[in-house]
Each structure stands twice: as structure tokens, then as C-alpha cells.
Amino acid sequence: MTRPAPAHRIALIAFPGIRAFDVSVITEVWGTDRTDRGAPAFELRRVAVGPEPVPMRGGLALTPDRTLAWLPRAELILVPGLDDHSTPAPEPVLAALRSAHARGTTIAALCGGAFTLAQAGLLDGRRALTHWALTDLLKARHPQVLVERDALFVEDGNLWTAAGTAAGIDLCLHLVRATHGAEAAATVARSMVTAPFRTGTQAQFIEHPTPHADRAADALAEVRAFALAHLDEPLTVAALAARAGMSPRSFARHFAAATGTTPLRWLVDHRIATAQKLLERTDLPMPEVARRSGFGSEVTMRQHFTSRLATSPRAYRTSFTDQPSSPQRH
Fold it and tell me: Are 13 and 117 in contact (CB under 8 A)?
């Protein structure tokens, strides 16, 4: 009988002033047992300086179940955002974050949690994100940080930062996907009734179509549904634009306004996601995985994997060889 894999150990850093929303997102993603649906096992711990309840806005409080001494056991550390971005983190928390980063532990900050990482000096000279409305404030307070604007989440030196609110969900699902695979992330997303992924390179906010643009929005929705159903075919942006009844330039403009990304990047992202699932679930040969996911050739698929995921399809499959495989050769 195969022994179950050990639970992935996650630490939620808690101190007065953290946002209840971010705490809830972290708890929903990693604190809910979904192993009966095939999701990995997680061990989420609420870590603070001491055992006292941590106050949050609205009369809420978070009760820690571990102190900072537990952090060396964590494989991932999550830093919630702040209700007031002038809130200083306790020095023991900042010191613990510095030590964790020195050990090579992955640290991810949601929304204004970037201010906490910046206070610790971890973001100096590194790319980072926060909510678009706080970008100038982060730049002013921490001029050594390379603050970006138009993305949902970004990684630099094993430090992840995310834009506001919903982007925290995107980052959390991305971290599940990166460690446990696309299928695990999709299982968590389905349970949360949210989209399985938005890529980190999408814009922080998306222009919503005005009433007179509803016809264009409907056409784009139909084109996206068609593309998802035909990813294994040699789709081109020009062909998709023609299907929407638009010129390529107009199509690209409306597409970016509706999705926050370009048609080509959207296609590649979904093809990578399809390839990931095939590599996780099946033992199909690489050329067939490339064909079914729409890359056409193994070489092209490998180039996109290397560019987007910093790994090869073969290495990605190897990381999931301990999971059951169900060949699909029809």
C-alpha cells in the first residue's frame, strides 16, 4: 500500500493590523481538507510572536496555534496585507522573515503584505507588486524596491508579491499549481467556485465593456469558448479576429480590455495549462502532448515551458511521477 505524501507545511504570519480578507483567502486555499477530492494534504499553521489572539478590524481576532519558533519547519510562508499600510510589523516577525528567506523558504505576500517584506529589507533591489492604488506609496516609502504596476503577481528571489484583493487568490492558486500541479489547483479553484487561473502578467484591473460594447463582448466570449474547445488546432489571432467579425487590431484591443492580456498570451497560457494536465494525468509521449495542447511540436512546447515555467515538460512530468497515471490514448 502506498503511503500518503506528507502534508505540505504552510505558515500564515499573524500580527496586529493584518487584513481579515487575506487571512480568509489563505485559510480557504490551504486550511480546508480536500484530500477526498484528490487535492494534496496541507498543514496550515497560524504563526505569531506569542499565543495571544491577534486583533483584526471589525472586532475579529485570530488565535495563533504556533509561535515564530515553528517557522523553520514551514515550506511556504504567507504574509497577509494590512488594513493600515503604515502599520509596522513587530521586529521579531521581520527578523524571522529575514531568516526564513536566508534559508531559501518561499515567502508570498498578498496585497499590502509587500510593505511588510519591504520593512524587512527583503525587497530592496527586487521587483515587487502591491495594489495599484498603493504603488506610489510603496515607491515613496521604500525607494529601493523595483515596484511594478501592471501585473497580478510577480516573483523575484523566491519572494512573491501580489496586487490587491482578488489577485491574492490568483497568487495562492498559482503557488498550489507550481508545487502540486494544475489538477490540484483546479480542484481547489472548483471548491472555491473561482477561475482556475489568471496568469501573473495580466493587468491589475480590466476595463469592463460599456453597454454599447455588449455585442463585442458577446463575440469575444464566443471566440474564447471556441478557442478552448479547439486548442489542438493551429489557431491564429487573425483567424480568431475573423471569427469575431473584427479586424486583428480591433480584436486585440477589445480582447485586452475584456481579459487584461493579449490574444496570443491567452492562447499560450491555456495551451500550457492543457499540457500540464496531460503531463500530470497521462503517460502520453511528448509529441502527442504537444499536439493535443496545440503547440504542434515538442520543441515549441519545450520553449514555452522554459519561458513561462522555468522548467522543461519532461522535468515537469518527472515531478509528478509519484502520482497515479491514467493513460489516454484514444
Answer: no
Which positions ≥6 away from 224 have C-beta within 8 Å? 259, 266
Cα 105 to the chain's mean position, in Å?
17
Which of 183, 155, 138, 167 shows the shortest CA–CA distance to 281? Answer: 183
According to DSSP, the residues that pair with 156 across neighbouring strands are 159
Closest C-alpha to 115, from 74, 161, 76, 47 = 161
Percent of the chain as helix, strand, coil, to the nearest 5: 50, 15, 40
Across residues 31-46, what is the average pLDDT?
Answer: 92
90 has a pLDDT exceeding 70: yes
**Residue 147, SS3 per DSSP:** strand
Residue with cell 508545487: 179
> Which residues make Cβ contacts (< 8 Å) with residue 163, sequence separation at least 6?
111, 129, 130, 131, 132, 151, 152, 153, 204
253-284: pLDDT as tens digits: 888 887 778 899 889 988 998 998 899 888 99
Q: What angle do CA 160, 165, 166 make, to 5 degrees?
A: 85
pLDDT tens digits, residue range 10-25? 999 999 999 999 999 9
Please check whether residue 149 is in contact with residue 132, taking contact to mean a CB–CB distance below 8 angstroms: yes
Residue-averaged pLDDT of the chain: 86
Those residues with Cβ within 8 angstroms of residue 92's Cβ, 6 or more apart along the chain or in another chain: 49, 68
SS3 for 130?
Answer: coil
Q: What are the start-end ranges of the E strands in the chain?
A: 8-13, 42-48, 54-55, 61-62, 66-67, 76-79, 106-109, 127-128, 146-147, 153-156, 159-162
Region of 5 (left: φ > 0; alpha: ψ -120 to 50; beta: rest) is beta
What pLDDT does 207 receive? 44
